[in-house]
Amino acid sequence: MEKKIDEILCKMETTAGKVDLYKTSKVKLPMAELDYLKNLEDARDFMNMMVTKTSENRQQLADIFGGDCSRIARIRTVLDEVVLSDMNCNDQRVRTCTEACETIEKVLEDMGLGWCLKKAQDEQKASFTRRRSSIDREDLQKAVLQIEAQATGATEAEVEAVQVVEVEERLSPKAKKAADAWAECYDEDFVKRVLACQQPGELQALESEAKASKATKLGNWMIWMVHRAHLDDPTLVKFDFTNLKMPEGNVEPLISPKLAVAMESNTHIEHLLMGCTNLQDQEAAILAVSLRSNRSLKVLNIDTNVIQPLTLESIANGTSVNEALQELRCNNTANGRLVTEAFLRALKSNPSLCKLGYPVTDAYFRGEIDKQLTRNNDAARKRRLEEKRRKEAGEAESEAAETKGYPHPPKADQQPERSPERIKEVKETVKEVLEVKEVITKKQELEEAPQLPEAEPAMLSEAGPTTETSPELKEAAVEPAEPCQAEAEPSPVAEDELKEPQAMTEEPCDEPERAGSSLKEARSKVSASDCEHARTDIPGTIEAFLGEGSKTSAPLPMRNLRGYLYKKSPGARLLKSWDWRYFVLHEGRLIWWRRDRDIPADEVFSHADPEGCKGFINFKVSRARIMPDEQNPLVFAIESVDGKWQEGSLKDMSDAQRTFEFDCTKSAHTREEWMDALRSTQQ
């Protein structure tokens, strides 16, 4: 028993040193941590066995872990000093081994060995710190070899050749035989040209040569493919090595080890098919680490490979945080209860994983895994339906913008171009509008001017008893308006009108009406985008032209508008509460269909109940209030001013007291455009 625990302790300390030594290596660290966890598992099982067998007689436990308490102190020191990576820091073997160690320590304290235990722990921690600070012998030998080679003037190629010879000497006879066989499967000159490529485009020139040599020199094609994955070639989406035997990592590091490391940063490979490829346990452990960082891989197949249960558990833990992986197949590899539990946790934490190829013999775990796979597939189906709905909405919006003549509004920095002739026409029209408005103002002043003499009846009594107004009085009545006219330059049209005050006073309403109609006609000649180019030459005139107008101008006509909007459903639904509908605002009615293609023809707008429409609001029957949402800048609402829609206002009068809510998200028009068009129906 003592010999067994001593072997376990030696392995624990050795693997703990490797974990500390390879903490910066992506290739060696995963395998070192897995070996360390395996030794922790052996130590945990041994301590639990000792506690169980000696529950009545503690003598055997005292003989093994008592005395100077050095054995249990060594276990405690390793557990406290070794720090694992994020992938394995939460492994349950660390927790269970720590609990078993604490149980042994409590038993020893009860036996009166607490002081010896504390002293032994302090000594072991100091010894572990000294070992950690020492330099690895292998690295020291390499450094000495390089110094000697530089002193003798040897080239780097000679140094590499010496290192290759040392590697070959460390290989087993079986590995040497495999290395000799592999040397015939590739061309050194071709491999050098492949490794010299630094961009994916450079590898395209070697594609024909690599594929041509696949039958005779399989190594050339494999190294070329792995280097494409290493350079993150955007054209490499499916990586397929199925049924192609790869050499072991210690024989050829340019294939399986390089591929496992490359998958950590690759962003284009979606299918990695490695079934029956002689993938070894060490490379699989590196692949488990890469899965945690990869965000593009969707399908992983590692069937029929030499993978141990501990490594397969690490792969399962890696898939639990990889949200892109959808299918994992690892049949004919390894199994066990811990591996099955790891896959069940991966399915629960990763809802995108919908297919799992792994043999489960336990009935309970089989049922749990099947239920979780059903949930994940149902969630994936809902995501596909939602994506399809969004795609259809986008296509319908673009189709409406292209075919119905209602394009998306231009961006703020994209102003339409106008010719110089058009700009000149806009300026002249604006000037005419200003002249007409000035005439209207003067007419109003003249209408108010005759009322001034009536405010002083004493002046009329001095002129005589007659009630008729003399021409001199009429001229005097006009004179007070002259200072107001002198403030602004009168146009020629205004001067001609002032020459005939008698005619103006007799017909005070005709000219303003004609002026208002002229103003309306001038407004229709230009648009807001045309006036933008005249803003720099006539400051302030555009705002007057686009303003509310004078009091005598006619109201603006109702606007017509078309486009898609989200309409809130009247009642709560299970899946959604907003419907994507196509709306048409035509002659005071807001009508909506499910899609724009559902409108039979434009003639249906004149019908009382247009064919195929889902609903309508008739603003000619009931006046409405258009209200913006204060919290959401894209939402507005429409409600009846009277609190209830009148008969004939809605298609479905059961919604007579309803407030309609709309969302302009993804609409071709802004919320302000929709609200302005709807408010034009209330004039």
From TrEMBL:
The keyword Nucleotide-binding does not apply. Residues 380-394, 410-422, 520-533 have a biased composition (Basic and acidic residues). Residues 558-683 form the PH domain. Residues 449-458, 478-492 have a biased composition (Low complexity). Keywords: Cytoplasm, Cytoskeleton. Residues 380-422, 445-533 are annotated as: Disordered. It comes from Durusdinium trenchii. InterPro entries: LRR_dom_sf (IPR032675), PH-like_dom_sf (IPR011993), PH_domain (IPR001849), TMOD (IPR004934). This is PH domain-containing protein. It is found in: Cytoplasm, Cytoskeleton. Pfam families: PH (PF00169). Its main location: cytoplasm. SUPFAM superfamilies: PH domain-like, RNI-like. The lineage of its organism: Eukaryota, Sar, Alveolata, Dinophyceae, Suessiales. PROSITE patterns: PH_DOMAIN (PS50003).
